[in-house]
Design a protein that fits this description.
Pdz3 Domain; 3 domains; alpha+beta; seven-stranded antiparallel beta sheet; Thrombin, subunit H; six-stranded antiparallel β-barrel; single chain; 27 strands; 12 helices
Length: about 500
């Protein structure tokens, strides 16, 4: 009994000593030994008997290793340097080709080059590299530097401003590359690595967790843009755009695109384009020459308590169909205004960003099963997706073609140009030979929008517009890349 009392007394004294030490260390405000509330909370949730790696933002369990993922990624991430020639005035852009015709020699105006930097990810051993559209947009020269310091010239294969994806290529073989993971399977709280080459040194690796999915941050500036990002807290700074977001298995789950910052440097939030979107866009560009966008054919509103009550829904989930587009896929499938879309192909959609991300993984002509709520009952509708023109056609970018009547070689306007200039159609001049347009001072890169009042978007439409005129007068409407629109007539 005495021994038990003795042990209890020692235990009590020990408890007071610990309490006294705690009060001394933590009670003084602003003392060097004090811990913030955030730090004490972080310490309190660490499991006992588990070794951890500490970073600035989180504690990483020791059983998670980034070594293999980093080693398999760094050599497949490249530095991208771009140069864009900037002309001084719109006046010179317009009259440059006319001066060349009149004076018989190329006109050189005052110009300067703008230099930009970014990162890219090698997707194949034969030189295909994915990056952000904003990294290479408007570039006249693109130089790629690999992790082993080799430099190569690259060309643009295709771009998609609506997802901020661009595909470029270098002439090389047996390059290290990354494989795609399934970004739909990425979980909030999952560890990821952000890999970029922003400073043209060697690839840089940072770690973080997935903070959110399907984030709409309104940076792409187009109504049809797929503005749905994976948000992480991995450190990303300028020059990391176009770099890789990989999981701990080294699979590509996203392409880093943006940071949320008031200063231009990392402040805790970064955003990546989901890999499933990237994979689809890249495949479109390689197979068809341009991205294939599919549409459900609805205008939606995000759900709130009032809409949920109106729809007879107990929970606030899904997206509300405000309007069904005439002759669209949703209308043909029987979806009506007032319906609530709950799922598309078994994936929940509770925001516009989620809906765009899901539909953005499909092409016109493909079908998606859409779960809707109508009058308190759940129904499944099979919707055949359509393109922006309301058809199920997959459009291939035409090869360049020569038109003898105009004396020019033309190509169908790329999707990036349509988005940049906010125009639905057009044929761009890629080469000017002797003919009526050259004599009229029209030069390379001029975009023909209409001929004789008819919109032109293909070789067949151009020939129809030229041949469908009853007289010999041809009226051409178009624009230069600087936005200057002109209209003129000539006699065939």
């Amino acid at each position: 009994m005495k021994n038990e009392l003795k042990n209890f007394a020692f235990g009590l004294i020990g408890g007071f000593i610990v309490l006294a030490i705690y009060l001394i260390v933590f009670s003084s405000e602003g003392g060097q030994g004090s811990l913030t509330k955030q730090e004490t909370e972080r310490l309190s949730v660490q499991p006992e008997n588990l070794n951890v790696y500490k970073t600035q933002f989180a504690s990483i369990p020791q059983d998670i290793s980034f070594v293999d993922a980093a080693e398999s990624t760094v050599n497949a991430v490249v530095h991208i340097r771009t140069e864009m020639k900037q002309r001084t005035t719109s006046y010179d852009d317009f009259f440059g080709s006319l001066r060349e015709y009149l004076y018989g020699s190329p006109y050189h105006n005052n110009s300067r080059s703008l230099v930009g930097f970014g990162s890219g990810v090698v997707l194949s051993d034969d030189g295909y590299i994915v990056t952000n559209n904003h990294v290479v947009e408007g570039a006249d020269n693109i130089e790629v530097t690999f992790n082993d310091k080799r430099k190569m010239k690259a060309t643009i294969v295709g771009t998609d401003p609506t997802t901020d994806i661009a595909l470029i290529r270098v002439e090389s073989k047996q390059l290290p590359f990354l494989v795609f993971g399934n970004s739909d399977n990425v979980k909030i709280g999952e560890w990821v690595l952000a890999v970029g080459n922003p400073f043209n040194l060697t690839s840089t690796v940072t770690a973080g967790i997935v903070s959110a999915k399907a984030r709409n941050i309104n940076i792409l500036g187009n109504r049809s843009s797929v503005d749905s990002f994976i948000q992480t807290d991995a450190v990303i700074n300028r020059g990391n755009s176009g770099g890789a977001l990989v999981n701990t298995s080294g699979e590509l789950v996203g392409i880093n695109a943006a940071i949320a910052s008031q200063t231009g440097v990392y402040e805790g939030y970064s955003f990546a384009i989901p890999a499933n979107i990237v994979k689809k866009v890249v495949d479109d560009i390689i197979r068809f020459g341009e991205p294939q966008r599919a549409y459900l054919g609805v205008e939606i509103r995000e759900m709130d308590e009032a809409l949920a009550k109106e729809a007879g829904e107990e929970e606030i989930k899904g997206v509300y169909v405000a309007r069904v587009v005439e002759n669209g896929g949703a209308e043909s499938a029987g979806i009506k205004s007032g319906d609530v879309i709950l799922e598309v192909n078994d994936r929940s959609v509770n925001t516009l960003a989620q809906l765009l991300e899901v539909v953005g993984q499909y092409r016109p002509g493909e079908k998606v099963n859409t779960l809707i709520l109508r009058d308190g009952k759940k129904l499944t509708k099979s919707v055949t997706l359509r393109n922006q023109d309301g058809t199920t056609d997959v459009k291939k970018r035409e090869e360049q073609f020569y038109n003898e009547s105009l004396g020019v070689t033309l190509e169908r306007l790329k999707e990036s140009d349509r988005s940049t200039f906010n125009i639905p159609n057009g044929l761009k001049i890629v080469e000017v030979k002797d003919g009526v347009l050259r004599r009229g001072g029209i030069g390379k890169d001029f975009i023909i929008l209409q001929i004789n009042g008819m919109k032109v978007d293909s070789k067949s439409e151009l020939e129809k517009a030229l041949n469908g005129n009853g007289n010999r007068t041809v009226r051409v409407q178009g624009m230069y890349p600087n936005g200057m629109k002109i209209s003129f007539e000539f006699i065939q």
